[in-house]
Structures
1.
Amino acid sequence: MPDENKILTVSASPHVKSKDSTQRIMLDVVIALIPAGLAGCFIFGGKALLVIGLCVFFSVLFEYLSRKIMKRSNTLGDLSAVVTGLLLAYNIPVLDVAKFDGKTWKATVMTVFLCLIGSFFAIVVTKQFFGGLGQNFANPAIVGRIVLLVSFPSAMTAFTVPKAAVDAVTSATPLGVLSDASLFDRAGDIGAQLTQLSGDGYLPDLFSMFIGVKGGCIGEVSGLLILLGGFYLLMRGVISPAIPVSFIGTVSVFMLIAGKGNLPFVAYELLGGGLLLGAIFMATDYTTSPITVKGKVIFGIGCGVICSVIRLFGSMAEGVSYAILLMNIACPLIEMLTKPRPFGVEKTKKSKKEGNAA
Amino acid sequence: MKSLSADAILKAVGRVRGGVMPAHNKLTAEMESVRIAPPERVVLPMQQHIGAPCMPTVKVGDTVSIGQVIGDTDKYVSAPIHASVSGKVVSVADVRLANGRMAPAVTIENDGEDRLFEGIAPPKVTNREELLQAVRASGLVGLGGAGFPTHVKLNFPADKNVDTLVVNAAECEPYITVDYRECMENAENILGGVYLLADLLQFKQVVICVEDNKPKAIEVLKSIADKDLHEGNKVRLMTLKSKYPQGAEKMMVLSATGRVVPAGKLPADAGCVVMNVGSVAFVNRYLTTGKPLTSRTVTVSGDCIKEPKNIRVPVGTSVHQIIDACGGFTKDPVKIIAGGPMMGTALIDTDVPLLKSNNAVLAFSESFCKPERDCIRCGRCHAACPMGLIPTQIENYVHLKDAEMLEKYGIGVCMECGSCSYACPSAKPLVQYMRLAKEIVKEAQTK
């Protein structure tokens, strides 16, 4: 018989819980991000690893310090700061030394500086100022990236040309080339121009685009490995396909129209820039995207529309970050408009009347 | 005509949304239910059902025998209480129940004679009214766990056009195997009950629902459905995907008929009556023997129980004695639950009586309590909710004490099945917040 003095635990039902935990979910995201990061290190060399290491280190450090200063509990164990650090690093390019007067130390100092500022705005300003995990109004890594992009536009576009891309004649990213009016004109014969640009070394061929041998930010270049990570997250049930599919689908439709049905053009647009990374890893951030499936689809379509409009009509080559940021802000509104109807609750009065009439 | 669906096992008509997949842990499934040595005393609380409590009809010193009424009331929504052992009434006083509340109870000291009350005889039932009277006299309440008086459930108004009886053999709660054993051991009573109820209450169809993790029970129930004692083949068997809370009343109605029970309404409003398979079998047993509800089968399981099994015990036996009958504990329990792990009540101690509606006693060496973390808005609670609510949003409005928004977010339809809490990776006690939300709404309405 049990010791009479032992006290039984009394708590509200249910008494069993699933094995899911915040930590495990974040770990899954980290695991899913690893292949794309390895690709970045392989393509851009050891400096990519330095950026990743610095961003993760600063993010974790800022998370620890800000919680400590605000006298809140230590939350490093939930791994969310690691995820933010990784995503931020994946959105920073390996700086091209040639653009820093050929001096390595200048490029390195700038790299450290970018990682530091980015992590600070991501973790401290966007996340902890608003109450920490689950309270941020926008994706921390996206805000970090945008702060860097508007504050240091030249550094953030000082892309290194991958060593493997031997024929490359420009360090501009494929999207940069496609939005450069002197190189590419959407009004002309798109197919011929793409072949021409590819042959002249301005654009990588589509296979290189897919595996990631091209200019760009560290984690966004390898479409193949980003998709692999996304597949892992889907299998683990960490993300639902609603946002990535609606986001990428919307961009595809826009580009199909803009490219007058030219499929290679659509492929360049989908594989170029941060679309896959953004749609799979950043737009699906739980805190800043709607909970219901309907809300997620609206969110994804909204991201796709804004991203396409910026890419096609804006002065910038890339619009994924801004699209996600704007939709992050619209998220509470979407949630309000897509409030689900609980089981057994009648539809609004209008449709009820219609039902009765029928 | 008969061959049309005689061998068909139907798939669910309506699909239940959400739900969770807790490990089944039906450790006692293949263990025949056994009787235990009769307890020395039983404690029979005067309220073992939803509705009005009974008043004791015996006093200290009275001698009672098995099946004798010891508590009753003239209120309609109630069910009489019968002596479950023969012996002497030693006290009529308040006792603490499993849920922590105090309630009046009659305590009977067992004289070991197993004397049946002489008034016991099979009731004559030829029509609906006689059936309802007999069911009330039997003391039957829903044996699936909720404990709603069965005669009230069966007395649906004629204007509701109730045409379907749904027999619930889903048993979606982990560990519990009581309904499964009922199928394996009392098939003829289930069969009798199904056709008897269908005849007397003139149901147009009977749908027996069972989860697909019980192949042997499916065989048994299929043979019942195939018996087809009616013209036009009224009785059908339906297998459901094994997931929790497949066996919830409104979910059953949806699966069996595709009908949606309106929010705040009963299955009768969707033309259905849902009965637990054990309750159906009991009705038949009562009509053939006249022996009221004085004992029931209960699953005793969990990692602290030495010999997990299904036992048949007199109502009012203490949990303590039930656990002793299963070899006691192998290790010190940290949590003991009356009922299933998803909706059961955690006990303060084992000195509480088993009620008519208790279908399990589970003892665990862990508390399953994890520290609550911040919500990451992952949406797993919404994905799991069979009612389509957003529990995390409701939690926010609980903190704001916003009754209006709580109602807008549909808190009224929450049945506290626990799927949201189960699914939450941040270990939030969401069901607790749901209950708080209901209190806030109630408070606002009375103001």
2.
Amino acid sequence: MTDPIRPALLDVDHLKVSFATDRGRVTAINDVSFRIDDGEFVAIVGESGSGKTVSLLSILGLTDRRTTFVEGTAAFRGRPILGLPDRELRRIRGKQIAFIPQDPLTALTPVHTIGWQIVEQIRTHETVSKEAAKKRAIELLDEVGLPNPAAAFGRYPHQLSGGMRQRAVIAMALSCNPALLVADEPTTALDVTVQAQVLDLLKRLRRDHGSAIILITHDMGVVAEVADRVMVMYAGRVIERGTAREIFAAPEHPYTWGLMASIPPVEGPRPHRLPSIPGTPPTPANIPPGCAFAPRCAHRFAPCAGLPPALSASGHDAFCFLDDNARAAGRAALFAAPETAA
Amino acid sequence: MTDATSPSETPAAAGTATGRPQSPFRRAMVKLWYDRAAMIAASVLVAIVITCLLAPVYAKYVSGTDPFRSSLSAKIMIDGKRVPVMAPSTEGLGLGVTPIGPTFGAKYMLGADTQGRDVAARLLYGGRNSLLIAGAATLVCLFFATLIGVTSGFFGGATDVVLSRFLDVLWAFPVYLLAISLSIILIAQGLTIGPFTIESGSLLLPIGIIGVIYVPYVARPVRGQVIALKRSEFVLASIGLGIPRWRILFFDILPNVTTTLIVFVPLMMALNIVTESALSFLSIGVQPPDASWGTIIQEGQGLLYNRPMVSVAPGIAIVITVLALNILGDGVRDAFDPRSKLRPR
Amino acid sequence: MITALIRRLAEMVFVMVGISVMVFLIFFATPGSDPAARIAGRNATQEAVAQVRVDFGFDRPLPVQYVLMMKRLFVDRDLKSFVNRGQNVIPQVLEATPITLSLVFGAAVLWVIGGLAVGVIAAATQGSLIDRTLMVLALIGVSMPVFWFGEVMNLLSQARFHDTWLFSWVPALGYKPLSEDPWGWFKTLVIPWFSLAVLYIGIYGRVLRANLVEAYQEDFIRTARAKGLSPARVMLRHALRTSLIPFITMFGLDFGVLVGGSALLTEVVFGLNGIGRLTYIALQNLDLPMILATVIYASFFVVLANAVVDFIYIFVDPRMREA
């Protein structure tokens, strides 16, 4: 899977992010490591507050440098990017790694046209004439499926619908042909039908442009549809990692079981009530020692007070004390239940 | 902007759950307590207020002269020599007199004014008036602003239209001109309403005038807030529960508006002190023989190039007081209204 | 668009009528006042007072009095100052206008540039020593009474340091018309401009900084940074551009109010015979017709400035264009 000679597209190692708050330093991200190769589609899944967005923003240097402390390493094509001077990082940001923000309503500057904002990005990274940049922007708008792209070029963000805006944002992200697209919950703010269209668009773009995509989401259904590999995050740590196939076939962490059980079944009778995970996730300021999920976990036992063994370097693994047998049994109990009830 | 209150600030909490350990008000007070700049400013203010308000108790005895009576022929001892307070001019034709400059002793610490009065002592008495007027005018302003803003916002309809239009007109009126128009009429002849007569030299006139002219500054945001509150979920819920309107007004709306008013207090105080000094400088504020910081600056105008201290000292007093009020105001706003819904100047 | 325009015009007229009514009521309907005696002047004979009473219709109902007064002010334009007998009020107001405009316009240029610089630099260096120093200076500027600061500037530039290289170029107080002596015009106005602008540089710098800091919390700033734009570009083309809207509102209001007479303190201190000083002198002589004229004139400018701001909005904020 990994080519030893060619460095990974993005290699993150022992990432730790902490914030300065009124009550001292608070660690939001702890010991997060992952790598992404060219053309891969990786999903990072977790509830809000689990640190999925923060980890990627900190890699891109988009967090507030005065209040956020980032430790560990991150290398883009073998070149370390954490702590890179802003001037150098800017050449990567937007050109090699593009970011698709969550809410397209607030993500575009309200006082400039869509076209102006795309042209701005193109001309920041490439020396092209205004006309050429405009031509390319219109092509991009066409490619992401905006009807009448030439007119959309001159529109202000508030004049477009949510789905249209999200497409415009994606067009802007694509404008410099990035090797990696980071999409932060690109579908959350959209209607269900538009969500599907945007996901299809992302899949098609990967095929056409060959960009790797990191999709940040809390929706396991979305993950099943598009991702090659999956990382599940909880309370600032990666708690399970594997290919989408592996994780959907045999999830190993009790938290992942909970996430999967909460997807409504596609076939069969509608369950009366979807199972949910009891309790709420901890905030970064009060993450419990040991396994952070233990307080909400039905399978917790004595060792959970300590920190589970680190994830293996590759392959499918979970950040959990349960052994393989216990995992299989727990999984079987949870997923058999609705069927027997039916 | 429509979402004026965050869930944690909703006063449904403040009004009903008094048993909670930390009400939003308490939390804000604690936050303010730990704001170092605001607390230093508050201490400076307390010191200034005490020094000025107690002036009648001690100032006369320290300065040794009556700060309201001219003493053109007095002499004081400096370095064992008797020096006249009003020295005959040695320049030019030798006409006129020059008041004594700052001695930096107990007597005539900051020199004398054109009538040989002790500037330092007058500064204290003047500060007393300036602070009293600014404080009372703030209360007048907040009272009327709340009355108009809440009535207009809560009852809506024709009441709102009339009151808002009135505020629009008042808002478009440059404050100094409004103050001048009111002052010229009132200060010249006093005000008689029925059996009540306010003398033309009364401090009540500047208080009333300064209080009234800034009403729209406060009433408009209050009205906006009341309207936002009326549309907020917890008020809608109360209406849905069939709670009477007056209860909603007193238990849901007013506690929230109070926060806004608290934020306005130091800022209006600051504004009022400056306004008072400006009106007094134009001789339509505090009337002689009373003094205020503004009148002292005005009286010192003629001495500006010879004895600048007469005009400069009260100005410095104003700057320090207003600066402290503004710093405190910033702190109060950060503590009570962290998302800065209001940005009064 | 047309209906919005008509609506706006109607509002303008309403506010102006409202102000004139209010001024009228303050001057002529305050309990216990005798406007006829006031207009006739001090030491006027009984006959003269009676004559004024009939001329101005003070023996008739208030609404009629109001209409008569407005007619004198706007239609006949023969309202006379009672201090300098026989002198028409309106031409005096018109004569003073260019002086006030010169003062306010120059100060406005200074304070817009200064306010932008202070706000942008402070926001860009948020939390640093530069930021804190600028904010303390701005707060001091806000806290100084403008007339007192003007006097201190006079003290420094006309007396204390007048003989040094720093202020030896400062001419004596007064005004020189731009058309006759442009360089003199500039020199006499530099100190007044600065004195008046300091307060507004403080206000605008503080407000702009707060708006910029708020803007930096917005998603679109993160998008702009994610695009790889330089910090300067993010600041100027995205954050500042969106923060300009409240800036323009404030500017319109302040400019209007200042031209409308609130610059009077500065004019008095620097001996500039603008509208404000005209009001001030009238004030000292209790020259009622003059004050009435200047106040009404002032309201006109304030309302006009508000309307201009509304139209500028349309250019700055595309969201306003459809509304």
